[in-house]
Amino acid sequence: MLRQGEAGDNIFVLLEGRTVALRHLGASEQVLGEHRVGDIIGEIVALTGRQRTATIVAEAPSRLLLLPAELLRVSGGAAPLRQRLGALVDQRLAMLGLIEPVGQ
């Protein structure tokens, strides 16, 4: 579905199914976690401009809602959503060791 290292500018919401996030480290692969219905995928790329930090693979037939990141940038009413996504980005980047954990 999504491949680590790719560029992107979309956020996805998992509507049906289940996906898993994998991080490739050389020849090895680390399972970062699962996404279930209602989870957000791709927020790091969309909000930071970084390349994708993980590969996302469908573990079951899945449907996703695609939200262009541009919607968050141009919609003033999306401030609470941007704040929540920003906190999620910080948490996931810290888990990946790409930033220091917030609050430390």
Q: Can you walk through the features of this model?
A:
The protein has a 3-stranded antiparallel sheet. The protein has a 3-stranded antiparallel sheet with strand order 3-2-5, with no helix packed on it. The chain has 104 residues and is of the alpha+beta class. The mean pLDDT is 85. The chain has one domain: Jelly Rolls, CATH 2.60.120. The protein is globular, with a radius of gyration of 14 Å. It contains 3 helices and 6 strands.
Q: Rounded to an integer, what's the Rg over CA atoms?
A: 14 Å
Shape: globular
Biggest sheet strand order reads: 4-1-6
Number of strands: 6
Poorly predicted ranges (pLDDT <50, ≥5 residues)? none
Fraction of residues in H or I helices:
25-40%
Q: Strand content of the residues, in percent?
A: 25-35%
Number of separate structural domains: 1
Distance between the termini: 34 Å
* CATH architecture descriptor text: Sandwich
Biggest sheet character:
3 strands, antiparallel
Mean pLDDT: 85
Number of helices: 3
Estimated structural class: alpha+beta
> Helices and strands, in N-to-C order?
EEEEHEEHH
Query: Which fold name corresponds to the CATH topology?
Result: Jelly Rolls
Keywords summarizing the entry:
single chain, 104 residues, alpha+beta, Jelly Rolls, 3 helices, 33% strand, globular
Would you spell out the secondary-structure blueprint of this structure?
Layout: E1 10-16, E2 19-25, E3 28-35, E4 40-41, H1 43-48, E5 55-58, E6 63-68, H2 70-74, H3 79-95
Antiparallel strand pairs: 1-4, 1-6, 2-3, 2-5
